[in-house]
Amino acid sequence: MKYIGAHVSISGGLEKSVSRAYRLGATAFSLFVNNHLRWCHKPLTVSTVDNFRNSCKRYKYLSSQILPHSSYLINLGHPNKEMRKKSCQAFMQEIYRCYELGLTMINIHPGSSLRQITEKKCLENISSSINMILNKTKRVIIVLENTAGQGSNVGYCFEHLAFIIKKIEDKSRIGICLDICHLFVSGYQLNDMKNFLYTFKQFNSLIGFKYLLGIHMNDSKGSFNSRLDRHHNLGCGKIKKHVFSRIVQMLELQEIPIILETKDSSLWKNEILWLKKQSLLCSFSILDA
Ligand SMILES: [Zn+2]
Ligand SMILES: [Zn+2]
Hints:
- The protein is α/β, with parallel strands linked by helices.
- It has helices at about 15-25, 45-60, 80-100, 120-135, 160-165, 180-185, 195-205, 240-250, 270-280, and strands at about 5, 30, 105-110, 140-145, 175-180, 210-215, 220, 230, 255-260.
- Helix 4 (about 120-135) links the parallel strand 3 (about 105-110) and strand 4 (about 140-145).
- Helix 8 (about 240-250) crosses helix 9 (about 270-280).
- The site of one zinc ion has 4 residues, from loops.
C-alpha cells in the first residue's frame, strides 16, 4: 500500500489540515505543527489537540501516514553554541507538540555551517544536538531530509546523512526523508533507468531502506546538479515524469508518506490521483533490479 498526499495548510487551525488532506483524496499528508517562520509559540489548547486527534480518527489517518515538517528557522548544526541551543529548544517544543497530537515522526532539514565551520564540524554538531534531543523527548522519530545543497546547507549527499545516523545513539528514533527535487539538483541523476537504479542502490548501501520513512515528491525548476531549491509540479520541471511513476512503483516504499510539496496546490488533487494510478500499474524492487 502506498500512502500518497501533500503538505497541507494549517490556516484557520491545525485541526483543519486533516479534512483538507481528505478532500484532496490523500492517503498521507504533511503539515507544520506551528508557525514555521516564528520562534515563539503558544502551547496547543486542549480543544486543538482533541479536534486534531478526532479528525484523524474520523478521516482514518494513522500516525504512519502523517509526516509533519519542522520550522525553517531551526539549525541543529549552528556554529554558535547559544543559537544551537535555541534551535534545539524550538525543535523539542515541536516534538512535544507532535507527541501531544499523537504523531510519531517529524521531518527536519539537517542544518547549515553558515560557512563559519567545516561541513564535518556542522554534521558533528547535528548528531550531538539530535542525541541530546532524543534523550530529552519521547516516542517521536526524527526524520532527516536530504537538502538541495543550496547556500551552506549540509545533508546534500547520502554520505552526510549516513555520517549523522552513524553517530546517533538511539537508532530506533532516526530516519530519512528523500526529497526528489533536492536529490536531482544535488547531483543524483534520475532521468534514465540506469542512473535511477544506481542512485537508489547507493542509498541502500550507504544508508539502507530501513531508515527511509518519507518521500517529498517534487519536480525541479532548477537543472541537474544546480543546487537550486525550487520545487515544481510533476511533469513541469527538469525531472522526467516517468521518474515519479517509477518511485511509486518501488516495492521498498510501502506504507511511508509520499508527499507533494509542489508549487501549484490547485493541481494536487490530480497529481495524487495520477500517482495512485501509477502505483497500481506495476511494481519492482530496487534490490532485485
Ligand atoms: Zn523540507
Ligand atoms: Zn522537501
